[in-house]
Amino acid sequence: MQHSRDVRTAMAQIELDGINRIFRLGDSEVHALRDVSLRIEAGDYVSVMGPSGSGKSTLLNLLGLLDRPDGGNYHLEGRDVTTLSADEQAAVRSARIGFVFQSFHLVPRLTAAENIGLPLMLAGLAATERSARIAQALRAFGLEGRAHHRPEELSGGQRQRVAIARATIMRPAVLLADEPTGNLDRSTGHEVTALLEALNTAGTTLIVVTHDPAMGERAHRWLRMEDGAIAQDLRRHELPA
Amino acid sequence: MSPTDTLRFATRAATAYPLRTALMTLAMSIGVAAVVVLTALGDGARRYVVGEFAALGAQLLIVLPGRTETGGVNPGSFVTSTPRELTNADAAALLRLPLVQRVAPITVGNTEVAAAGRLREVMVVGTSTDFLELRGMRMAHGSFLPREDFERASALAVLGDAIRAELFGHEPAVGRMIRVGDTRLRVIGTLAPGGQGLGMTTDELVLVPVATAQAMFNTNGLFRILVETTRRDALPAAQRQLEELLRARRDGELDVTVITQDAVLGTFDRILGALTLGVAGIAAISLAVAGILVMNVMLVAVTQRTAEIGLLKALGASTASIRAAFLTEAALLSVAGALTGFALGHLGAWGVRLTWPMLPAWPPDWAVIAALGTALGTGIAFGVLPARRAAALDPVQALARR
Ligand SMILES: Nc1ncnc2c1ncn2[C@@H]1O[C@H](COP(=O)(O)OP(=O)(O)OP(=O)(O)O)[C@@H](O)[C@H]1O
Ligand SMILES: [Mg+2]
After folding, report:
1. How many domains are contained in chain A?
2. In Å, how far are B58, B264, B270, B356, B376 from B50, measured between CA atoms?
3. In this complex, do A122 and B315 lie within 8 Å of one another by their Cβ atoms?
4. Which of the listed residues B306, B393, B394, B396 should we mutate to test ligand 1's pocket, taking the one with most ligand atoms within 8 A of CB?
5. Which residues of chain B lie closer than 8 angstroms to A109, CB-CB?
6. Which of the four pLDDT bands, split at 50, 70 and 90, describes residue A82?
C-alpha cells in the first residue's frame, strides 16, 4: 500500500468498503444496506437478486452515484467518489455510468432520437456530432424506422431499446439496470437481455437487478441480497453442476 | 448544456402543454395590454388638453373673478364663487397698462338663435376685437367685431361655421339679420371652420360685443379677461402690474386671480400625468398577478415533471442545467405574454384613436418599456423559485415518482 502505483493496479473498477445506508422515517429506521463491501472488476457481468426490500435498488442507486451512503467508502476506477460534490457526481454519471430502468423513463414529448440524444445534449456536444452518433445508435438497436416516433407510439420492447441506446450513447464504463425486463413479456425480455449482454461482451461492466432467476443465472457473477447485506456471492464456474 | 439547447428544450416543454401556455400568455398579455392602452388614453388626454391650451398663445394672462385661498393654481381656480364682479371698466383699465398689448373681456351664456325661420340653442360669447388674435382664429367671410368701447352694445354678430351652415346653408350669411335671444343682430362675419380652444370648438359659437352679451344676459360681470402681454419674458412683471392695478381698483383688496397660461398648462400637465401614472400603476398590478401565475404554473410543471427531472439528473445533468431549463421556460412564457400584450395594446390604442380622433392616444415610451420590463422581470423573478426547487430535487426520489 506504500506505492500509489501498486494501489491503482490492485484496485478493481468498483470497490465498496463497509457501506451503510439508513433511511429514517420519523422514529423508525430502515437499515437498507449493512456493511456492504464489494469489488467488481471491469467488464464483469453481475446479477443482483434477493427478496423485495432487501436493498437491491438502494445498492444500485449508490453504485450509480444517485444516492450517498451514511457510512463507508466507494471507489470508482480508483477515485473516491463518496466525497464529490453533487455536480462532480453528475459529471461522473454523465461520462462513466449508464442507467436502464424498469419503467423506461423516456421523456414523453421527445422523439426516440431526441431521447437517445439527451445525454449528449446535457454533456454539451455540438448538434452535428450528436446526430451522427444518434443515427449510429438507432441502427445498432434496430430503431431506424422509429427515430421520429414519440414513446407513446412505441412498443414496450422498443421503448426499452431506446432507453438502452440512451444509456450507452456516452459509452459508459458501467451499465446499471434495475429490473430492465420487469415490464416486458418473456420474448421481448430475452431480446433486451441479449442486447445488454452484447454490450457487456464489448467491454462494458453490466450490473443487473432482477427477480427473474432465468435472467439472473445468465450472469457471470451472482449476488444474493438479504436484509441489506450480501448473503451470497458466487461465480458461474463455482456453481454446483 | 449549451444555451441553444436549453432554449430548444424549454420551448419543447412549453409547447408540449399548449393550453397551459396559452392561458399563461393570455394572463401576462392582458396586463401588458392594459398598461399600453390605459397609458395611451391618459397621455393622449394630457396631450390633447395641453394642445388646446397652447392654442391660446404663449404670452397670455388670465384674470378670473374670485381669489383662491392658497394663491396657487389648482382646479379650484376655475370654480370659485364670485365675491365681486370683474367689469368692462376693469378690462379697459388693464388695456392702458404699458406691458399689455391686447385685452379681451369674456362673457358667456346660452340662448336661442333664429334666422330664416330656423331656430337652435347656441352658446353666445361676448367679447372684443382682440379675441380673434388672442385665440388665433381665422375669418371665412366678412370682418370680426370692430374695435370700439367695451361698454358699447353694437347689434353685431360673428357666426361659427356650424351655426352659419345650419342657419343659412349655402347662402351668404354676411349682412343678414339674426335674432339672438330677444336681440336682433346683423351678421358681419363668419369664422373659418375647425377653430379650437378652451375645450370647445368655435364652430358652435356666436360671438357678439361684450356689452351686447351683458345686456342679453342681464349682467355686468365678466366670466374672465384674457390679457396678452407685449413680450413673453414680460409675463411675471405684467402679472404683478395687473394685480396691483386691480387691487387699487377694488379698495386694496385683491379678490381676483391672475394666472399665467404656463401655470394652467403645468397644472393640467401634472394632474393628467399623475393620472396616467396611477392608471399605469394599477394596470401593473395585473402584471404582478401574472407573475405569481407564472410561478404557480412552473411549480405545477416541476411537480408534473418530477420523474423527468430525476431522469435528467441520472443522465448527468448539472443543477445549473436544470435550473436554466426551467428558468428559460418561465422566461419564454413571459416573453410570449409580453409580446402578445404589446401587440394587443397597440391594437387597442389604435382603436381608441379611431374612436376619438382628436385624442393623440399613443402609449408613452416609458410606459411601454416599463410594461415589458415588469412582465419579463416578474416572469423571471417568479420563475426562480420553481427552477431552484427543480434543481434541488433528490434524484432517487424523483425517479421513483410516476
Ligand atoms: N426513500 C426511502 N425512504 C425510506 N425507506 C426506503 C427508501 N428507499 C428504500 N427504502 C427502504 O429500504 C429498503 C430497501 O429498499 P430497496 O428499494 O433497495 O429494495 P429492493 O431490494 O430494490 O426491493 P424490490 O425488489 O421490491 O425493488 C426497503 O425496506 C425500503 O422500504
Ligand atoms: Mg428495487
Report:
1. 1
2. 12, 9, 11, 17, 33
3. yes
4. B396
5. 12-13, 16
6. very high
Query: Is residue B279 located within the same domain as residue B371?
Result: yes
A87·B9 Cβ contact <8 A = no
- Our answer on whether the CB atom of A54 is closer than 6 Å to any ligand 1 atom is yes
Chain A residue with the nearest C-alpha to that of B16: A109
Q: What is the pTM for the complete model shown?
A: 0.71
Q: Look up the domain containing B142 and give its range.
A: 101-228
Q: Which of B1, B321, B396 sits opposite A67 (nearest CB)?
A: B396
- Compute the average pLDDT of residues B47-74: 70
Residues 318-347 of B with CB under 8 A from A: 318-321
Question: Mind listing the pLDDT tens digit for each residue in A177-223?
Answer: 999 999 999 999 999 999 999 999 999 999 999 999 989 999 999 99
Q: Is the pLDDT of residue B318 over 90?
A: yes
Q: How many domains does chain B have?
A: 2
Instruction: For residues B306 and B223, state if they share a domain.
Output: no
Measured between its terminal Cα atoms, the distance across chain A in Å is 39
- Residue in B307, B308, B316 closest to A91 by CB: B316
A25 Cβ inside 6 Å of ligand 1: yes
Dihedral Cα B242, B248, B251, B256, nearest 10 deg: 0
With a 6 A CB cut-off, is A56 part of the ligand 1 pocket? yes
For B232-278, the pLDDT digits (tens) are: 778 888 989 989 999 888 887 888 888 887 777 777 788 888 888 88
In a domain, B209, yes or no: yes
Q: Which of A21, A92, A121 to mutate to test the interface with B (most CBs of B within 10 A)?
A: A121
Give me the pLDDT at residue A175, please. Answer: 97
Q: Whose CA is nearest to atom 31 of ligand 1?
A: A53
CB contact (8 A) between residue A122 and residue B399: no
- Asked if A43 and A205 count as a contact pair (C-beta separation under 8 A), the reply is yes
Q: Residue A166's domain is classified under what CATH number?
A: 3.40.50.300
pLDDT over 80 at B56, yes or no: no
Answer whether B196's CB lies under 8 Å from B50's CB. Answer: no
Under an 8 A CB cutoff, do B396 and A87 touch? Answer: no
Pairing of strands B100-115, B256-260: unpaired
- Average confidence score pLDDT of chain B: 86
Any ligand 1 atom below 6 A from CB of A30 = yes
Of the candidates B283, B257, B297, the one whose C-alpha atom is nearest the C-alpha of residue B370 is: B283
Residue B85 within any structural domain of the chain: no
Distance A230 CA to ligand 1 centre (A): 15
Residue B105 within any structural domain of the chain: yes
pLDDT at B82 over 50: no
| Residue A2 pLDDT | 45
Residues B383 and B325 in one domain: yes
In a domain, B79, yes or no: no
* Residue A99 to chain B, least CA–CA distance (Å): 7
Residue B57, Ramachandran bin (φ over 0: left; ψ between -120 and 50: alpha; else beta):
left
Banded model confidence at residue A147, pLDDT cuts 50, 70, 90? very high
Q: Are residues B276 and B387 in the same domain?
A: yes
- Cβ contact B191:B158 at 8 Å: yes
* A221 alpha carbon – ligand 2 mean position (Å): 19
Whether residues B147 and B206 share a domain: the answer is: yes
- Tally helices (H) and strands (E) across chain B: 12, 12
Atom of ligand 1 nearest to the CA of A55: 18
> What number of residues does chain A have?
241
pLDDT category at B368 given cuts 50, 70, 90 is confident
Return d(Cα A216, Cα A195) in angstroms, integer.
15
Give the C-alpha separation, B227 to B133, whole Å: 11
